[in-house]
């Protein structure tokens, strides 16, 4: 007699997947299971529970198993699904770009507030290290502006350009292959300079979660030095620029003192910090002239 294949319903898969992910120490295992299954079935999480008795087809099971295997290896959920939500938009992501974080939305909010407070009309903005393009695209989605977004990775720039097209901001953003240490001499012509630079010190890499340390691009995480290399260079270029330069930079958890000391030592005195929703100092704003 031929063996009867087991029927896997949505509710069965959610339960067993949650258990597997929990055993591997993955946080929010139920949410991960829901998002991976939703992605496989091209539906939303609510519909999973409205149709929890629905059995999966063999092709769907095969695809879902592949995604679970990748997640169990600690590959980030966003890389498995190939997308990430940020600032009310959806972005394509992959191993060549950093995954957008909710805390980075503070950088967007502060930048937009600054532009409005200064009554800048169609400001010229430079973003350093654009990655997926999420920062520039989020800003361009809200205001009229002209943005030059630079990165040293061609692969990242391709993803950024695709994301910009998907989110209808291509006419406002010019993506460029440039290195802040070699190709930029000052910030002349820009109203604002913005960046979420690599701020993890090399000796801190081992403290990171496997999803971050083993999968996200190291060049976007660390400067391979003290975590201040990019801040030092950006402040240096700002002080070389004729006229007023406004700089907005994201900083890492607990990094305020290091960044503040650097700014003071470089003669920068007109600055302030902004906190994120968790009350952590997240952004430094400096006016330099």
Would you mind describing this structure in some detail?
The protein is an alpha/beta fold. The chain has two domains: 10-73; 83-288, 3-Layer(aba) Sandwich (Rossmann fold). It is built from twelve helices and nine strands. It has helices at residues 10-23, 29-41, 45-50, 58-72, 77-81, 105-117, 134-140, 154-166, 210-213, 218-221, 229-240, 256-265, and strands at residues 83-86, 89-92, 124-128, 146-151, 173-177, 192-195, 245-250, 271-275, 281-288. Strands 5-4-3-6-7-9-8 form a seven-stranded mixed sheet, with helices on both faces. The radius of gyration is 22 Å and the shape is elongated. The mean pLDDT is 95.
Sum up the overall morphology in one term: elongated
- Unreliable sequence segments: none
Instruction: Classify the beta-strand content into a percent band.
Output: 15-25%
The strand line-up of the biggest sheet is 5-4-3-6-7-9-8
Arithmetic mean of pLDDT: 95
User: What's the Cα radius of gyration?
Assistant: 22 Å
Features:
single chain, about 290 residues, alpha/beta, Rossmann fold, 2 domains, 7-stranded mixed sheet, about 40% helix
